[in-house]
Structures are given as structure tokens and as C-alpha cells.
């Protein structure tokens, strides 16, 4: 691993966080959840609750590195000399800063514009309980109405209010948003939400859909939220990382 950048510029804790976030960007690319240079993922800096890392705008997710990430505060100010000159997506700042500021339990946020995610976001009924993947989010997901490109600070309070205490939200006519107290949790949420949307779009081609009973839906959602799930989430994260382990020297640079 190339550590010269981390040793000369920042503490090891922040460098480790940057490496993990760069890996997450590459995994989102690996699972084909990118949209050219748009969409964004952020991570709160460990031990710095008012600061978070986000992508340097213009870098493809497939090529994200630890040194390409930018450390900003809730007002969008770039904080470190080694990050000066890097562009940050304005809409990314508006969305992520609002949630990080309002939700101390949220350390990682992922926002995507996948075709299936946007398709479901455009459907009046939203996410339907059509699959086990979707049942993870039954009565556990927020919805935010489209207000145009998220450039206005006025929208921040509505974003926070619509997310509520949920981990995930569907941005109407826009895309998906997932959060977690860890990178592993946020990745798990967006993976299942994206799969649920893919399944729904395919299932909608059927003339007749089968929906589980409400009691079963609620029971399954509770199963996904039991404490015993946490080790599974961590194992899934490590399994995903193994798919790009050959890129570690590159993304930790």
C-alpha cells in the first residue's frame, strides 16, 4: 500500500477512512451503480463529527483514490491545504451536509441515479413489497418529492424531514439514497435497495403481481432489523472488498 501521502499529510485514522471510502466508490462502480461523474458518497471523518469526506468532482468512481477525496465541513468549505483546488459537486454538498448535520447516527451516505432506481422513483406507488429484497424496506423508507437539481439550501430541511429516522429514502423522479452508521451498513442498504428496484421493474412486466400479506411483510422487515444481522453485514462488506482487493494499492494512493 502506498502510504507516503498519508504519512506526510494527515493522521493515519483519516487516511484509513479515505482508503475505505475510495474502495466503496469503486464497489459502487463494480456493481454498475454510477452515473458518469454525478452522484456521490460521503463519510464522516472519524473523531471529527462536523467534517466529512466526499468525492473530487470529475473523477470516475472506477478511478477514485484516497487522495482524490475532499474534506469539507457542513458549510461546504474545503478544510485542508492538500485538498485545495479540488471541485466538489454542489448538489452533493447540499444533500449530504444536511443529513450529516441532522443525523449524528449517520456516518456514511450513498446517493445513486441508476436506471431502475430512478424508474421506481417515478412510479406513483413507490417501492412495492414484491421481493424479499424489497421487504427489508417495508414501512422503513422515506420519500422526498422532486424540487429540481438539489442546489438550494432551502431544500435541506425538507430532505431531513422526509428521511426522518429511516436509513433509506427514494428521491422522487431522481434516484436512491442510503445511509449507515458504517460504510458496510450503507453499502448493504444501497445494494438491497437497488436490487429491489431492479426486481420491481422486471416484475412490472407481468400482468398479475403477487403481494405477501401485510403481517408477513412486517415480520420480514423486523427480521432484517434484528441485531444478529450486523455480523452478516460486515461479512458481506468484506466479501465485496475481496472483489477489488487487487486494486488496493491503487485506491489507497
TrEMBL record:
Residue ranges of domain Class II aldolase/adducin N-terminal in the record: 19-201
Gene Ontology MF: a single term: actin filament binding
One cellular-component annotation, GO: cytoskeleton
Gene Ontology terms describing biological process: monosaccharide metabolic process
Gene3D superfamilies referenced in this protein's UniProt entry, alphabetically: Class II aldolase/adducin N-terminal domain
Domain of life per record: Bacteria
Pfam family, one: Aldolase_II
Record-stated family: Belongs to the aldolase class II family.
PANTHER family: ADDUCIN, PROTEIN HU-LI TAI SHAO
Protein name: Class II aldolase/adducin family protein
The organism of origin for this protein: Acinetobacter soli
Lineage, top ranks: Bacteria, Pseudomonadati, Pseudomonadota, Gammaproteobacteria, Moraxellales
